[in-house]
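Ticket #4471: structure export looks truncated?
Reporter: QA, pipeline team
Priority: medium

Steps to reproduce: submit the single chain below to the structure queue and open the exported record.
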Amino acid sequence: MTTRNKMITGLALSTLLATGLFAGNEQMKKDRDSSCMMKKGSMQKGGKHDERSVVGMFKRLNLTPEQDAQIEKIVLENRANMESFDDAFTKDGFDKAKYIKIMNEKRDNMLKSNAEILEKSYAVLTAKQKEQLKVLMDLRKEKMNKKL
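Actual output as written to the record:
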């Protein structure tokens, strides 16, 4: 094999390898971006609402803009009433007892708070949307049972 043939073969192999690496990198970017898009699409003003949560499932019900605004308002109002652990910090100190109290209350009130959000949000739905929600929940349950 002559030097010229070796150079051409090496160049062709290098080009093939570089193209493969570039394509693989682009596919990884697409996969990462699509998963980020799903997360971004499920983020709403007021918190995370992915499809695993019932409020997140509401977003798949073709809500009217008014319904969407009402549900967001319910979530935001509920979250606004929660005390933040930031309140345990001051300009010059940290109140450990207050932090523990806030975090314990947050844990204790989380179930009650979520139930209140669901109750008020469910009341916003039409009868057809309630039926669709039940179907979505059944499908989610079925999918989760298959994973087990």
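Status: closed, not a bug. The export was complete when the record was re-opened. Leaving a note from the reviewer for reference: The first helix runs from residue 3 to 42.
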